[in-house]
């Protein structure tokens, strides 16, 4: 009886539009990534996580939007998404909408870049009234890009960080995300 071949290692890229340091948006994405890695490990799948912090690419994204010129740093970030097996997309919410920085980055991507790529969505805001932003604004955006979005989106307001329910939502989203990533569907 032969031993099954080990699963191909997976790469998950976090795209975080959080601008503060530390960033609650990045923290939420990191928690989702960590739980996903744990779940993939239980399936004997090695995975790594890379992060694209959009706050470091503000000028590059602006230049690409206005002039159509992609800097080396922006090209590297986009190439990271191209070669990724899955993406965690995380944005803060401002004035009841996704971050302009986040949307501007998505706007410079090729429409075919994320086809069949698993994507988990996460958003943070100063108040919980914005909890539907991931489903109402991010999900249609990624549907347009033909990505495979997990059923559970994450949202966290300041009061959620001390609530056990956030950890439960992260676990549910990570379980869904890990199952899709493990399937190898993006290949």
Give a quick rundown of the structure.
This protein is an alpha/beta fold and 187 residues long.
What's the CATH C level? Alpha Beta
- Main beta-sheet strand count, sense and barrel state: 7 strands, mixed
Total count of strands? 7
Q: What count of structural domains?
A: 1
In the CATH hierarchy, the architecture is: 3-Layer(aba) Sandwich
Q: What is the CATH topology?
A: Rossmann fold
Distance between the termini: 28 Å
Structural class: alpha/beta
- Give the averaged pLDDT, no decimals: 95
Task: Report the sheet-strand fraction.
Answer: 15-25%
Contiguous low-pLDDT stretches (5 residues minimum) are: none
In helices, the fraction of residues equals: 40-55%
* Rg for CA atoms: 16 Å
Overall geometry: globular
Order of helices and strands: EHEHHEEHEHEEH
Quick one: CATH superfamily?
Flavodoxin domain
Summed up, the helix count is 6
Supply database-style keywords:
187 residues, Rossmann fold, alpha/beta, seven-stranded mixed β-sheet, 6 helices
